[in-house]
Amino acid sequence: MKLNKEKLVIKFVNELNARKCADGWIAKCPAHEDSSPSLSLNFTESGKLLWKCHAGCSQMLVFDSMLKLGFFPSKKGGANGI
Ligand SMILES: [Zn+2]
């Protein structure tokens, strides 16, 4: 799947309060009630998106939540990233 990185980043900033940090982005996790940002977002060199919720949400749970928010066009991609 080809992701539009700029569009995704704007969406992360607008909807999840994403902020740039040392190794990528940190945002509010859409899969749980997140008072302090605990979702790490990262783009690999090949443009693949990776994420991890430090509060313990599973990859798929976060993916499903982002999907519902309209972050991705379809439900393709693996459990560990897109
Ligand atoms: Zn979470």
Task: Give a description of the structure.
This protein is of the alpha+beta class. The protein has one domain. The protein is built from two helices and four strands. A four-stranded antiparallel sheet has the order 1-2-3-4, covered by helices on one side. Strand 3 and strand 4 (49-53) form a beta hairpin. The chain is globular and about 30 Å long. It starts with a helix and ends in a 14-residue tail after the last helix. Residues 29, 31-32, 53, 55, 57 line the site of zinc ion (ZN).
Structural key phrases:
single chain, 82 residues, alpha+beta, four-stranded antiparallel beta sheet, 2 helices, 27% helix, 21% strand, binds zinc ion
Radius of gyration: 11 Å
Low-confidence stretches: none
> Would you tell me the structural class of the helices and strands?
alpha+beta
Sheet-strand content, in percent, reads 15-25%
> Main beta sheet, described?
4 strands, antiparallel
The ligands found in this model are: zinc ion
Helix-residue proportion: 25-40%
What does this entry show, briefly?
With 82 residues, the chain is of the alpha+beta class. The protein contains two helices and four strands. The protein has one domain (5-68).
List the helices and strands and how they pair.
Blueprint: H1 5-16, E1 19-21, E2 24-27, E3 39-43, E4 49-53, H2 59-68
Antiparallel strand pairs: 1-2, 2-3, 3-4
